[in-house]
Amino acid sequence: MNLINGIFKRLYWPICRAYARHLGDRPADSLLRFLCSIDYYRLNRFWPNFVHPQYFSEKLWNRMLYDRNPQLTLLNDNLRVREHVKSKVGSDYLIPLLWSGNSPKEIPFDELPLQFVLKANHGCGYNIIVRDKSQIDRLKNKRQLQKWLDENFGQDKYLGIAWGYKNIRRSILIEEFINENGKAPLDFKCWVFSGHLEFFSVHFDRFERHSVSTFDRNFRPIDVGLPLTEKRREYYGPENYKEMINVAETLAEEFDFMRVDLYNLGGRIYFGEYTPYPGGVTIRFLPKEMDYLLGERWK
Predict the structure, then answer these.
(1) Do residues 156 and 170 lie in contact, with contact meaning Cβ atoms separated by under 8 Å?
(2) Cβ within 8 Å of residue 114, ≥6 positions away
(3) Residue 229: what pLDDT?
(4) Nearest CA-CA partner of 280 in 48, 18, 63, 42
(5) Distance of CA 12 to CAs 46, 48, 124, Å?
(6) CA distance 77 to 106
(7) Greatest CA separation for the chain
(8) 165 contacts 123 by C-beta, under 8 angstroms
(9) Are 151 and 157 contacting, i.e. CB atoms less than 8 angstroms apart?
(10) Phi and psi at residue 149, to the nearest 5°
(11) What is the mean pLDDT of each run of 10 residues along the chain (299 residues)?
(12) What is d(CA 69, CA 155) in angstroms, rounded to the nearest whole number?
């Protein structure tokens, strides 16, 4: 299986990316749909119907293949989405922005606090957590940021079908490092269907012993079969969880489905990001029955 996965990543994915790049901003045609169906089958073990999707995973891929709503470009832009969030729920929910710019060479390291987070605005995983700036290799960090800026996440990663990232104007932003006693705060993934938050997936110890547990909107433990869910935790949610529900539902109210990621730090709620493509093309939703049930909620 690892051999097959390796072959797909090294040989098949570049073919899909090349053809998706050829289509530009046009929705997928029958050939790209067929190419993606093969990879979907490898991952999920059944042939998809992307035109009339029923399963959550099918609807997720349908969004990547066909939805060309320019709003997706804004939501995936980690810098410019801040104004959108401000207009929806107010600036109090934004992580403080320390600096933004277009070139790593312009980063004013000497003016920054001891701790901060370096980010590129146009993809997933483009961040560097700085816990002590006196210990970092500034040149190495600048090179890494430039490497990210030179990539088009929507075109150059995986199958090249995450269209919402494709047309983002690439920038760097530096945010305040929010933490709880030096650790990453709990990460609340809010799954909102047609403006109604159905459940939370909560990430614990994200950079240490990472695990995920799922809870309904009243923080009763449930099992929806999401990847990384290791065990049920005895966790009853933050006291202001109803405020979190309101923030998530307000931010996602205009979409048939949207995952809104929030942090809750000592009773202070912070916006993390919009995630219109949770798992992208790499996550298999288990079990299949739950994939179907989640698909039913996505109208």
Answers:
(1) no
(2) 132, 133, 134
(3) 56
(4) 63
(5) 18, 18, 21
(6) 20
(7) 54
(8) yes
(9) yes
(10) -65, -25
(11) 78 95 98 96 94 96 98 98 98 98 97 97 95 96 98 96 97 95 87 96 78 89 72 80 97 97 94 94 84 94
(12) 17
Q: Provide the residue ranges of all domains of the chain, joining segments of one domain with +.
A: 2-69, 96-175, 187-297
Decide: residue 263, CB within 10 A, 0-12 exposed, 13-18 middle, 19+ buried.
buried
Which residue is associated with the tokens 């730090």? 265
Q: Domain 187-297's class? A: alpha beta
How far is it, in rounded angstroms, from Cα 267 to Cα 186?
A: 12
Which structure tokens are listed for 254? 């205009």
Token digits for 138?
């500034």
pLDDT score of 227: 67
User: Rounded CA gap, 280 and 284, in Å?
Assistant: 10
Query: Reduced to 3 states, what is the DSSP secondary structure of residue 106?
Result: helix
